[in-house]
Amino acid sequence: MAKPGATGVTRIINATGYSMKGLKSAWINEAAFRQELVLVLLLMPLACWLGDSLNEILLLIVISWLVVIVEVLNSAVEAVVDRIGSEHHELSGRAKDLGSAAVFIALALNGLVWGALIGRNLLGWW
Fold it and tell me: Where, by residue number, is the active site (predicted)?
């Protein structure tokens, strides 16, 4: 059964407000989010310059924003785990480690894509 609440445009407005609150919280409380967001914003013009086609430009932009998205989700997991309690628990540690691994994989994938396009478009490797 669905929860009672706002519908239509009101729901969209409320959801947008919650999202802005979440982004503000990430900016204030998460140094990694700030660093990755600033890096992504700096990379956007570089993506437009480096990409030879719209597909390449979009690939660089999307893969860069993926890191920020995964970081936000990792921060959400960490907040929930910390809310549950500060005592050490194997599952809490596993949840945090898995979130961190997700960020690592997103960063590695980002580096791979950027590196491949730099290698091809700037260095002529293949």
Answer: 71
Per the annotation, the verdict on 71 as an active-site residue is yes
**Given 71, 74, 92, 99, which residue is catalytic?**
71
Residue ranges per domain, the chain? 31-123
Tell me whether residue 15 is annotated as binding.
no
User: Quick one: how far is CA 2 from the chain centroid?
Assistant: 29
Say if CB 106 and CB 70 are below 8 A apart.
Answer: yes
Is 34 labelled as part of a ligand binding site? Answer: yes
* Assigned CATH for 31-123: 1.10.287.3610
Across 34-43, average pLDDT = 97
The predicted model scores a pTM of 0.88
Question: Six-digit token pair at 112?
Answer: 């791979």
